[in-house]
Amino acid sequence: MDINLLTVDSARSAVLEKQTTPSAMVDAFYQKIEAEDGPIGAYLTLSKDRAYRQAARIEALADKGDDLPPLAGVPIAIKDVFTTKDVRTTAGSKILSEFVAPYDATVVSRLEEAGAIILGKTNCDEFAMGSSNENSGFFPVHNPRDLSRVPGGSSGGSAAAVAAGTAVASLGSDTGGSIRQPAAFCGVVGLMPTYGRVSRYGLIAFASSLDHPGPFGKSVLDTALMLQAIAGRDPRDSTTADVPVPNYREQVGEPISGMKVGVPGEYFEEGLDPEVREAVEIGLQEMKIAGAEIVPVSLPHTAYAIPTYYVVATAEASSNLARYDGVRYGLRSKEAKTLSEMYRRTRDAGFGAEVKRRIMLGTYVLSAGYYDAYYLKAQRVRSLLARDFDEAFSKVDVIVTPTTPTAAFKLGEKTDDPLAMYLADIFTVTADLVGIPGISIPCGKSKDGLPIGMQILGKHFDESTLLRVAHVAEHALAGKVAVSS
Amino acid sequence: MVSEKDVSYVAELAHLELTDDERRRMLKDLNSILDYIDRLNQLDTSNVEPMAQVASRYAQRTHGDDAFAHAMRADEPLPCLPREEALRNAPASDGTFFKVPKVIER
Q1: Is the Cβ of A357 closer than 8 Å to some Cβ of chain B?
Q2: Which helix (H) or strand (E) holds A458?
Q3: Is there a contact between A356 and B45 if contact means CB atoms under 8 Å apart?
Q4: Predicted-complex ipTM score
Q5: Which residues of chain A make contact with B105, given a CB cutoff of 8 A?
Q6: Which of A80, A193, A424, B47 is least crowded, fewest Cβ atoms below 10 Å from its Cβ?
Q7: Where are the domains of chain A?
Q8: Given a cut of 90, is residue B24 above it in pLDDT?
Q9: Whether residue B105 has pLDDT greater than 70
Q10: What is the pLDDT of residues A193-226, one digit of tens each?
Q11: Adjacent-strand bridge partners of A399
Q12: Which of B35, B42, B58, B78 to mutate to test the interface with A (most CBs of A within 10 A)?
């Protein structure tokens, strides 16, 4: 068994058909992580006790001859922004470097109930704030396709683990593109479900109205099977919607003939790398061959998405991150005599530069005298962005765009210019603001051999259509994602 | 334009101290980002409702006034984290409460 080739289904079958045991599979993955993850840096913490305990549980089920749950024995990785009981959970921040969570995030317990084996927690930008993983409080992640390049962010570790084959699938979170952008850079599939489709309970909050948990996989089907396990209402998250969850496996593989695929001109303007444009145009051509109709649409407020995002997201972040005060958990500065001094010194020592920048910006736009000019203004523009999509989706079933304007950039290339870094998310932030689902699938390579991503956006709660289109495109373009060697 | 005074004031609100270097950098970065954000003023939004969150816009369309009915539950006490679990990550505690430095100087 070549573990690089494992998918969700084949890992489960290997256990079901007794080609291997879950513990032997876990052994093989830990050996691979130890041998290969050093230069990549995808993992922050390995949850070995937990992994072997779960492996034993699955083994017992297999021995009894019981029907195995859908993700039985599938080795996965979890972005370190999701709490895992008794396992260190850092959110990529020094302020939580010793934090051991007392409870599991809903998505974590659901994945384990579905049989998945959690190998460890993956590196990410601190509090999921970043587009390159260089904001990790510990060490940056390197792109397994080219170690001189970033894996994207903020879920860079989760994307890199799947690309490197050190996990079969993984979980990330997307607030402004943090699943889709690293999926594009690492050449894997990354799915951001509709806001409200997946519980945020136990997801360490960055911007609560924008945070979306979602999976990475080597194929569209793998992300669909991961979504199946985590989707649905959770009484512990009042923003999860009371919307039925379809059987995604049945949807993947359905034909797309007659479907209308929208192409927004605003996403193909100057600034888009010609190689990326060409790759996405080839993808669109394949959809046409499969019987879809390509329809030009307009999303006229696209140029306002990044400024809107950096007001809304930082405002919410400044409020969410107020909890890191050195009182109940996390770092506490020992050089403080008074309570307020303790707050300031703790936060100064625990937060990195980008997190401080966003807390400052968010505090500023919410402060007296600026609230209306910035925060309220951005909320109104957020409505305009939503209207753009309402209008477009009255004409088409899905919208196709590039995931990113360029392929993966080099480490250090954008670290001195926060605005240049923010613009790496120019094609992804709008879906977070509007709450619609989006997926990035690999669609060709640049002449330097770097992966290029195609983004498909769908209507609220219509992940099914998204997955159907993505699956057709995936098979027309390249088939399954190969692990880099 | 954000001034040095604004940076100090906002840092105080945010419970950050910031070194002199950090303040200088912050002044530059905030001004450059806010300058970019100012393009929102090109849009007339006087008749546009603010959108605080996704569900308020979409659930109401499908579920009307009952949009958030599912978010309501009976106000009943449920088990919560045991005290020792809740205190496990505390930087300082006396076994019953979190301990913090003095709040009032005498």
Answers
A1: yes
A2: strand A451-458
A3: no
A4: 0.94
A5: 338
A6: B47
A7: 3-256+463-477
A8: yes
A9: no
A10: 999 999 999 999 999 999 999 999 999 999 999 9
A11: A262, A457
A12: B58
Q: Show the tokens assigned to A40.
A: 């990549």
Cβ pair A381:B85 closer than 8 A: no
CA distance A23 to A17: 15
Select from A263, A252, A238, A213 the least CA-distant residue to A111.
A213
Q: Determine whether the interchain pair B55/A332 forms a contact, defined as Cβ–Cβ distance below 8 Å.
A: no
A282: Cβ contacts below 8 Å, ≥ 6 apart: A443, A444, A477
Indicate which residue of A93, A154, A199, A440 is catalytic.
A154
Q: Which helix (H) or strand (E) holds A247?
A: none
CB B89 within 8 A of CB A328: yes
CA dihedral A121, A122, A128, A130 (to 10 degrees): 170
Tokens at A52, concatenated = 């072997």
Closest CA to B63 of A416, A243, A482: A243
Is A85 an 8 Å CB contact of chain B? no
* A13 upstream amide cis, omega within 30 of 0: no
Structure tokens at A442: 């690999």
Known active-site residue A79: yes
Listed by number, the residues of chain A in 112-141 with a beta carbon closer than 8 Å to a beta carbon of chain B are: none
Calculate what percentage of chain A has a pLDDT beyond 90.
93
Distance (Å, whole) CA B28 – CA A55: 52
Chosen CATH of A3-256+463-477 out of 3.40.50.1820, 3.40.50.970, 3.90.1300.10, 3.40.1110.10: 3.90.1300.10
Q: How many CB pairs under 8 A join A and B?
A: 174
Residues in chain A: 485
| Active-site annotation holds for A334 | no
Among A185, A210, A262, smallest CA distance to A424 is for A185
Q: Determine the residue of chain A that is closest to B105 in CA distance.
A: A338
CA angle A167, A485, A275 (to 5 degrees): 100
A257 Rama class: left (phi>0) / alpha (psi -120 to 50) / beta? beta
- How far lies B41's CA from each of A42, A88, A318, A381, in Å? 41, 44, 23, 10
Query: Are A380 and B98 inside 8 Å of each other by CB?
Result: no
Give the span between the Cα atoms of A136 and A94, in whole angstroms.
9
Please return the burial class of A281, using the count of CB atoms within 10 Å of its CB with bins 0-12, 13-18 and 19+: middle
Q: What is the pLDDT of residues B46-91, one digit of tens each?
A: 999 999 888 766 666 666 666 667 777 889 998 999 999 999 999 9
